[in-house]
Write a structure and sequence with these properties.
CATH topology: tt1808, chain A
Oligomer: single chain
Low-confidence stretches: 1-5
CATH class: Alpha Beta
Strand content: 25-35%
Radius of gyration: 16 Å
Shape: globular
Number of helices: 3
Number of strands: 13
Order of helices and strands: HEEHEEEEEEHEEEEE
Structural class: alpha+beta
CATH architecture: Alpha-Beta Complex
Distance between the termini: 44 Å
Length: 193
């Protein structure tokens, strides 16, 4: 017997709620993954510094691409979910003319950096890999500041990534194609909690 997962709200209702939250509650960023509503924690200074480092790294090695922070993406099966990754790597003009929730088709990589919020961390480690794989995003980069590890998910197949590589901060690792960038993760040691 197959369980049917029913959402308590539609995608349209979520988008309306997210717009209202943006207007009335400063710093609240909502996501809707696998029919579940989640609030994303606001980034701290170390989180912001990690994103700066990644943006600079991609600009040096892949100048035709840009790591866009906080771009909302339509994710999940049938694109009914809404995620706001910490960064989405795509061609510089990939999101031009799109609204708050963009087509994920041109995205080569999404990145999430863990926060102090347990719910956000759980989504980053369990729910988002499934949603991003199901969407067909080639690479998901998770920077886990609690375990001091970088996890690279690649080769999406259905709702899972076929390859998962975890290395400690300080290791040098190559992000697989189509990203094809080598990351020396040594600087991450300075930006942990």
């Amino acid at each position: 017997m197959t369980a049917v997962h029913e959402s308590f709200m539609t995608t349209e209702e979520f988008e309306e709620l997210a717009r209202a939250a943006d207007r009335i509650a400063e710093g609240v960023r909502l996501e809707f993954i696998d029919g579940q509503l989640g609030a994303k924690a606001m980034p701290d200074g170390d989180h912001g510094r990690i994103m700066q480092w990644l943006i600079r790294t991609f600009m040096m090695f892949r100048p035709e691409l840009f790591l866009t922070p906080e771009q909302g993406l339509r994710v999940d099966r049938y694109r009914k979910g809404r995620a706001r990754p910490d960064g989405a790597l795509a061609a510089a003009d990939a999101f031009v003319g799109q609204g708050e929730w963009a087509d994920p088709g041109p995205v080569l990589l999404v990145v999430e950096v863990t926060s102090d919020d347990q719910g956000t961390d759980r989504r980053d480690q369990q729910e988002k890999p499934l949603a991003y794989a199901d969407t067909g995003i080639p690479v998901y980069l998770l920077i886990d500041r609690d375990s001091c590890e970088v996890t690279i998910h690649s080769e999406p197949h259905g709702s899972r990534y076929e390859r998962i590589l975890t290395v400690p901060f300080g290791a040098t690792v190559r992000l697989p194609k189509p990203v094809d960038v080598e990351l020396n993760t040594e600087p991450l040691k300075d930006w942990v909690r």
